[in-house]
Amino acid sequence: MCGRYTLYQTEQLAPRFNLAAKPKFISRDNYNVAPGQQLPVIVRSGDKTVAEVMKWGFVPFWSKDPTRGLRPINTVSESAFEKPMWREAVKHHRCLVPSRGFYEWKKIFKADGKLDRRQAYFIHPRDQELFAFAGIYSVWRDAEGHPFPTFSIMTTGPNKQMEKIHNRMPVILNPKEETDWLNPSYDQTGQLAKLLDPYDDGKLDIYRVSDEVNSPSNNDRSLLSEVAGS
């Protein structure tokens, strides 16, 4: 899964993702992105690629009340094409979620098999400094037509590196896959499903970080520092 990630130096979004224009919003450096926060995502708007700010936590467009019910931050890719919650979005409302890395927690057990604690790790691709998760989005509207855009990050099974930490991982795209994921002509399950594989083995840096990341109120670059242990 993906429950926290990082995004900083957002002035690099425009050149990295070939945006049609420099984003109008100002996005602060965020070293501990948490669910419910407003973040930039990359979408297709007509024949242009643009950045828009959306809330992390998916609200389907048909929801009666965006403040009630589940607001999932992740979407299980293996079932996304069948479930009513996701199938419209995965076919027609796909986005890129820019990031520079994400956090995951490994369960550490005692000798008697009981859970001892959860150890935080930071993970990022070795071959992409600024990359994108595959995402989907929805735009809920109130009675007056005011939009409330939200997004979710696609997840898949782990590669061999990640399976030592968790049984799921976010879908990390390479630049070619980013173009395909945003391509509106890609609307068939087979076309899209092949983009939702785990990232290649050996291409992730994974290291232990401080438990300070456990609290969303902690948000500075020191969270990225490696700490001793394994």
Report what the structure shows.
This protein is mostly beta strands and 230 residues long. The model has no long low-confidence stretch (mean pLDDT 93). It is 10% helix and 37% strand. Strands 3, 4, 5, 6, 9, 10, 11 and 12 form an eight-stranded mixed β-sheet that branches. It is globular and about 55 Å long.
Question: Number of helical runs?
Answer: 4
Find the structural class using helix and strand composition: mainly beta
Beta-strand percentage range: 35-45%
Largest sheet: 8 strands, mixed
Stretches where pLDDT falls below 50 for ≥5 residues? none
Separation of the first and last Cα atoms: 20 Å
How many strand segments? 13
Computed over alpha carbons, the radius of gyration is: 18 Å
**Helical residue percent?**
10-25%
General form: globular
Order of helices and strands: EHEEEEHEEEEEEEHHE
What is the mean predicted local confidence, pLDDT? 93
Task: Give a brief description.
This protein is mainly β.
Summarize the helices and strands and which ones pair or pack.
Blueprint: E1 4-7, H1 13-16, E2 30-33, E3 38-45, E4 48-56, E5 74-76, H2 87-92, E6 94-99, E7 101-109, E8 115-125, E9 131-141, E10 147-156, E11 169-170, E12 172-173, H3 175-182, H4 189-193, E13 204-208
Parallel strand pairs: 4-10, 5-10
Antiparallel strand pairs: 1-2, 1-7, 3-4, 6-9, 7-8, 8-13, 9-10, 9-12, 10-11
List the keywords.
230 residues; mainly beta; eight-stranded mixed beta sheet; five-stranded antiparallel beta sheet; 13 strands; globular
